[in-house]
Amino acid sequence: MTIKERIEQLSEELKGYVELRAELLQLEATKKIAALLSGSITAILLSIILLISILFASFWSAFVLSEHLGQHLGFACVAGFYLLLFGLLYMARRSLLKEPLREILLRSMLEKELKSEEDPDEWPFEKGRL
User: Fold this and answer.
1) Which of 5, 21, 51, 12 is nearest to 130 (CA)?
2) What's the rounded Cα separation, in Å, for the pair 57 and 49?
3) Do 89 and 79 form a contact (C-beta atoms < 8 A)?
4) Quick one: angle between helices 3-69 and 73-91, nearest 10?
5) pTM above 0.90, yes or no
6) pLDDT digit string (tens) for 86-96?
7) Is the pLDDT assigned to residue 26 strictly greater than 80?
């Protein structure tokens, strides 16, 4: 085998490797996007159900309080409770909302990298990681 033939063979193998690597990166990106989308859709649906439940519980609370406090005072108390809750959440938004959400998103996006740091000798095709 001549040097020219070896160079051509290596060139073909390198092209194949680059194509396979590009396909692998595309599959990994697709997997991460699908996981992010499915998690987001699930969170949105659960949030809608929770919000509807809170809405009905709020109306019930307002009607019960109105029976005891007066015609409109029960609704005012429920509205005041939500305004107070909003104020507390707004003041603590960084520690209660921004930081935990950022950690959750980063952890879910970097899940594979974190696992590979824990066990660097593990072959990536094992246990359905791809």
Assistant:
1) 21
2) 12
3) no
4) 150
5) no
6) 999 899 888 88
7) yes
